[in-house]
Task: structure prediction
Amino acid sequence: MPVNIFPLLPGHLLPVEGITLGIAEAGIKKPNRKDLLVMLLDEGTQVAGVFTQNRFCAAPVIVAKQHLMQSSTRALVVNTGNANAGTGETGIQHAVATCAELARLVGCTAQQVLPFSTGVIMEPLPVDRIVAGLPAAVANCKTDNWFGAAQAIMTTDIVPKAASRQVQIDGKTVTITGIAKGSGMIRPNMATMLGYVATDAVISHDSLQALVRSAADRSFNRITVDGDTSTNDAFIVLATGKAGHREITRQDSAEYGLLQAAVTTVAADLAKMIVRDGEGATKFITVQVDAGKDADECVKVAYAIAHSPLVKTAFFASDPNLGRILAAIGYAGIDDLDVSGIQLYLDDVLVAEQGGRALNYCEEDGQRVMNQSEITVHVVLNRGSASTTVWTCDFSYDYVKINASYRS
Amino acid sequence: MPVNIFPLLPGHLLPVEGITLGIAEAGIKKPNRKDLLVMLLDEGTQVAGVFTQNRFCAAPVIVAKQHLMQSSTRALVVNTGNANAGTGETGIQHAVATCAELARLVGCTAQQVLPFSTGVIMEPLPVDRIVAGLPAAVANCKTDNWFGAAQAIMTTDIVPKAASRQVQIDGKTVTITGIAKGSGMIRPNMATMLGYVATDAVISHDSLQALVRSAADRSFNRITVDGDTSTNDAFIVLATGKAGHREITRQDSAEYGLLQAAVTTVAADLAKMIVRDGEGATKFITVQVDAGKDADECVKVAYAIAHSPLVKTAFFASDPNLGRILAAIGYAGIDDLDVSGIQLYLDDVLVAEQGGRALNYCEEDGQRVMNQSEITVHVVLNRGSASTTVWTCDFSYDYVKINASYRS
Result:
């Protein structure tokens, strides 16, 4: 069961001027489900993205990166049910063919289309079914279709993931709306499998590219469900430039700061929804590491805790078996770590210090926090001033069940 | 259920001259179980060990390392039920007190005793119960007690783990007998939680220390159950020098090579037993990575596969969802990996090459191998001449069950 995600109402999502979305049933893996999404962008929309660092990256990732470099972007096409990953040269051809057909339908070049796929790895993409489904998706395009789009990109997700926000820039109202999907194979390294955030802000391409990286590093790049980095991760920010304020061209401007904060908030909301809907999740865990020497060591400690199957099963059981967290900190890879200097808190409860259990810690306090559905693990390293936060979920029977039966 | 470990018969284990073992019920965590082991060593026994790299290493690990440096060793004491880890300064005092009491009973100094603990982390060691149990353990000491010792060090282990072997050196028969425990929190980094191998070989201390490192790197340091490195890992080799051959003093000698091979075989047998008895294991998986540029990248690829929850749940389900293995290779951290050059085999079945599914691969062949209880994943990187082998198990409902209820 997803942890504390409340049903999203279509009306909560604000359209972004300059972008329409259309969905269709292409029958890619299963019949009678929306599995194809087309997004059409007005001319002049700036597009920037970050993609998976997995060396076995999927064909659509390779093609989308090429197309982004070659041309301005006018359309995105997303299919679920098949990742078109581990499909070699044929996979590339299938991704290009999908782009070419959408380009023909909407009147642009194939290079102006970015392809995305999600689903099972190492099976041939049913490109004929996608091509056959494209006209219906194009015909369905409208501005207020974000909720349908969020549904169309789901795979093992239980709930659709979307968020909207507005911010005032230069006296104008700027809208930001985003959707994402993902619940397993989640340990993004650049971005997660399919996050799209659109805004009508006016921003140069260089500034937008800087913004997408920084937003990813504070959202999708700080979540993990199972530590498996997907072959298909992509996080894309679209800026249509319709909001009417002066163009943002400098990363040291106040306007850039406002937009970056708003986009990062939407991206972090989406990223946390992915964790809340993590496969089999029953708890939402925030791992906050403070007072590290540098960000790198904070990240190491946070992920050691967030990836430990022993820590995650203890959360599932609501068992304050907190020595497992100490063990994870100990093997995080900080060679000169002095464990006697560390404090470990569970929410507000001081659990360990001076290399052992805190004097005033009692099991009842630990149990009280462990019983909650949302828990913060707070580690104070006392080595410097760097911090990081990572979000994850627990590890349950249902994770095994879902992943032992994903293809059947 | 442990995977293909056959019941060990007490008679299979050969005594090692110069070593006696005694066990007792100390009631450390639960009543009516053997939870205390004492090993007494004849004078002149060489002792070498490798210990966990976890920075939160347990109090007995700190004390054992100090004692090993300070003095010759005459006794070992092992308790289960409590790891004496994450226990701060008090934990150190408890470990030293245990050594002092055993020293008093057998007539040596506290520095000549090495302490070991395994069990729950961050709870105070019930040192009084251990001290009270020591006389019975000492009284029980005898040479043919290896089977009882293997039983006494179990925690969540289902089967006791032990192995014996003999080798001819310099015209003399040399005996090697070892015991080990462990089934969860298994990703040794130096050695696993409690592996002891004893031999009557005659070998200098320097040569024995080199041998223990090399044996660990080919056995305990190549297994993983859940990727969690324990706070208490220790692998100890004892050499009593009773076999009567000339002392081995050079690592380039034929005699050293013979002994090293035999000790490594016993250690690898024990390490594989730990994986076969991995918590919830239903399959035994060998991950063999060949033709890497160096050992480091082979190890990275092997562990990326062996730690992936998605790969491990697919094995549990006997589902040839083999794209998950490609994804794990892709995120293993080899920056310049050309995925089109890799071959992936499942036993003898070529699954993937040239970046995608192999032309002749068919699902039936993959399914046939996945149905087996023992499977080899074979990755050929085609980048060089380095190789490594890692052993692991699948990831089942029972892993979650065992670890969600370990303390109750």
Notes: The mean pLDDT of chain A is 89. DSSP finds eleven helices and 16 strands in chain A. Chain A has two domains: 10-276, 284-404.
